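Human: Can I borrow your eye for a moment on a structure tokenisation matter? Separate attempts, laid side by side, tell us more than any discussion would. Could you pick a protein and write out its sequence and tokenised fold? No explanation is needed for now; the record alone will do.

Assistant:
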Amino acid sequence: MSFSVLIVEDIPITQTWMAQAAQLAFPQATTHCASTIKEARELIHQLKPTLSLVDLKLPDGTGDEFIAEIVARHPDCINIVITIYADENHLLSSLKAGARGYILKDQSKSKIAQMLKQALAGELPLSPAAARLVLQQFSQAQDQSSLTQLSPRETEVLRCIANGDSTPVIASKLTISKYTVEDHIKKIYKKLNVSNRVEAALVAHQRGLIS
């Protein structure tokens, strides 16, 4: 599968490092770098990238504002924040803007490449520190009586989701196929009235399935 990746980062050495991670994940992809939001706007209309990797602090604006712009104009693009900021304010702002992943730069290129693959597969990659912040800061009161009872297996899958496990990891842990995992996840989303892993993890947290 060939597609383009847009990297929005103002530090050249970090641009190169992020491009290498993207190439590791998608060897056939073409990568394009922008140092400013202005440059990125020009590129995104030309490229209509499949994936964008966006830093939060840029010379002419913030990454979350740019992500909101991409979501409005190019909704098919998968936008991932890659940043040094591991605090709830930046995380919440990014996810509300439409980011479909939040990755900290302190991870290895191979780990980031793995998380980018997860994003393309429809999962929501979060660095472990970011996932903890989601559970701590995103949690809002929810009427537990409205939650449909999950089966024991669905509860196991939900617990794995809350721990940040990818679909193949869940399949391995529970000794089932990835297709069965995907089927369980669809049922969990429907029963809990959620649309992604972050929301599912919040419900798991509220139910006391994770600490």
Summary: The beta strands are 4-8, 30-34, 51-54, 57-58, 61-62, 78-83, 102-104.
